[in-house]
Design brief:
The chain has 587 residues and is α/β, with parallel strands linked by helices. The chain contains 13 helices and 24 strands. The chain has three domains: 140 residues, Alpha/Beta hydrolase fold, catalytic domain (Rossmann fold), CATH 3.40.50.1820; 69 residues; 221 residues, Jelly Rolls, CATH 2.60.120. Helix 2 packs across helix 3.
Length: 587
Amino acid sequence: MINSIRIDRNVPMEMRDGTILRADIHRPDDNGKHPVILTRTPYDKILRKDNTFMNPIDTVFAGYIRVIQDIRGRFASDGEYYLGEHVTIGAQDAYDTIEWLASQPWCDGNVGMIGTSYEGSLQWPTAMTNPPHLKAIAPDVGPCGPVFEQALMGGPPYLAFLAYWTLQVGSDIADKLEKEGEDVSKMRQMIARGFDDGTEMLNSLPLKDNPYFDFNGIREIWNGIVLNFNPPTDLGDNLYWDYSQVKVPVLNVCGWFDISTWSTFKNFSGMRDKGGSEFARQHQHIFMGPWKHGAQSDTYLGEMDFGFHSFVGFNIGPGSPGYSHHLAFFDKYLRGKDIELPALLYFTMGENRWHTAEEWPLPGTEQQRFFLHSKGHANTTNGDGVLSRGEPADESPDNYVYDPMNPVPTTGGRHIYFAVIPGPRDQVHVERRSDVLCYTSPELRDDVEVTGEIKLHLFAATSARDTDFTAQLIDVFPDGRAYNMAHGVMRARFRKSIYQEKAELVTPGEVNEYLIGLGVTSHLFRKGHRIRLDISSSSFPAWVRNMNTGNPPNEDAEGVPATQTVYHEGEFASYIEMPVIPRKWRT
């Protein structure tokens, strides 16, 4: 039993090149040896003490040592920070840190890692270096490679997130410049102003001249992440993590309204298929709930209440009330306890129940096509197009005009909470716009569960050289409320390749197929509800709006309107493919 805790601040750890990194260490104040759970963060270790799942105090009382380290060049740690460091020198630093920890007299030689977002992305390159004492990792909302999920889908940059992330990075840059004698008063003023009200910052055009980032050290980061959002071709086989080099169990954690849902399942499947050891391949786990980015403690998300069980669902295990899923994971793989953990623990929204599974995709999954029918279709009501299982006849196309200077406002969705409210939100006011097409199913006669990856095959043309197409999957309630449950976007130039150097502008008026990924979800559309698909070309400020010019995304101060045409005939029959789970599997 742990009676007291010892906290050592800014403990120096020397890396192989002599650079000193510093960490806070929370450990039982006894003479025993204990396993270590490590977080490496770029966000200031002092502020990360209340990690969502395993805060230091609770973790120590559970018998673990909790270590939180500032990565190279951030806050208390020495050295230089640069974008992409986590896949190169950062992985070496992590290796050295883990082995340093394992050598301490208070460590029993078993080290695990945990962390959210950027901290999650740090864990994969670390595991690929195979530190001898690393036994398990638990990346929360981590990507499946060195680039963002949306980039892998051919989508535009995350505007709101990247802007606020740059402000965060800028705060530490200002501190360091000030220590060097530079006047950073204007920089601090703009950073504070951006955090207080980001309206001007997010609306500023062109992006490359944004006054909030027009400072040494920040300007380069801002333009770099916008221009290099989609991957360069030199990434080659390094587009995804090299799962064959990872030899430890992984607990992949994410929420259905996070930006990394598809990546989470990509990591799980990648490790199951290619993991670096049989042990690793057989011990992969997923934990998915109705949550936003890095926040799993709210039962109410967006405008929907998923119930108390959406939070307490991670207190699982027969005879073990209060045992979190994370703690059970580390008890199993760092302490060797005989604990049964499901491969997948996930929450089905709409049904509002937790389920377990051992295989992915779920056994019995039926890939069903729902076709988009023209607004001029005979069965159309209320001006909507129709969404149905039947293929369209030769139906007339639908048109709308997308004006980048009047973009569709972001209303909920799988977004990070900077300047937008994530989660399901009523889309009715958005759907009244003339630049949003709605395709709605008849009233459902039975429940329809959709669990898995969703893809839209959109056949469309544009009058522009480049543009975006967005899609939202909507649950329409009997009273008319319409909640977004999944979404996706594709930048037209990336329709054939997600690589920047292989981008291909559009021939105006030419019909192209746009394969738009709407991520992965688990949602039950109830009997009496309807399924709707919304099509448009923007969601601002969540995503950088396409100015329809074909220029790089940071150059234009003015955009041009584009006429968009969606087709419903013959070889151009647009449809959404959804993984439907037969109800017999749930009864």
